[in-house]
Amino acid sequence: MTTQTPITSMDLAGFTERDPGVWTDARGLVLSVHFFGLVPDLPAPIEAADRLRYGLARSVSAAGAGLIEAVVGQVDTLPAVRQLVKVPLQNRRGQAFLASWTIPRAGCSTVVKVQAAEGAFTGMREAVLLAEAGPERFFTPHPYGPDIAGGLPYHIGDLEQWDARFPDHPLTLVRAELNRIAPTVALHPSFKALPPFGHAEPPQPHAAT
């Protein structure tokens, strides 16, 4: 599919290639694949799911965005983490939504990402659900850590349970499209054979003797 990543194939139905490794569709979705030849900057091993989610939520908030969810799973049998992130648009009101799978190995990683931005009408999903739930139920502490602050606020309006009511919302679209594509991703055997990603645990102090 592209020589820049270890992804050998995936279902691109409905997408048109715009640049190497970048595709778009009629709904305004942008699908891209990436390879990073560096040790992944994930804050914890995939196996340490709670620490991983907490660290990701903190770093996303510190960057002025918001982590909607981080889910540990597999892509083509390899451990991976799926993230849904919302970011403020820089030149106008509204948000963009990014859904991605990161597949880390010891010294590199590959990423499949789907993104889309709100159009001229922004905030309708949030406004409808806020009116129904009320502010106290709508805005809640971040589930990955009550001390996570800054960036875009966490709220129940981003939960998947509301997607069916807002089928054309960019969050609904990117979440559904990544869910559709991920099971079709095939990785090159040489990438799958690389050592797994992990963080060495800090040395424990020896007891005094």
Number of helices: 5
How many domain regions? 1
- Rg, alpha carbons: 19 Å
Structural class: alpha+beta
According to CATH, what is the class? Alpha Beta
N- and C-termini, Cα separation = 60 Å
Quaternary structure annotation: single chain
Question: Brief overview, please?
Answer:
By secondary structure, the chain is α+β, with helices and mostly antiparallel strands. The chain contains five helices and nine strands; from the N terminus they run ββββαββββαααβα.
Can you describe this structure?
The protein has 209 residues and is of the alpha+beta class. It has one domain: Protein Transport Mog1p, Chain A, CATH 3.40.1000. The protein has 5 helices and 9 strands. It has helices at 49-62, 124-133, 135-138, 170-181, 189-192; strands spanning 7-9, 16-19, 22-24, 30-36, 66-75, 78-88, 95-104, 109-117, 186-187. The strands form 2 sheets. The chain has a 7-stranded antiparallel β-sheet with strand order 2-3-4-8-7-6-5, with helices on both faces. Strands 1-9 form a two-stranded antiparallel sheet. Strand 6 and strand 7 (95-104) form a beta hairpin. The longest helix has 14 residues, at 49-62. It is globular. The chain starts with 6 loop residues before the first strand and ends in a 17-residue tail after the last helix.
Structural features:
single chain, 7-stranded antiparallel beta sheet, disordered C terminus, 28% strand, 5 helices, alpha+beta, Protein Transport Mog1p, Chain A
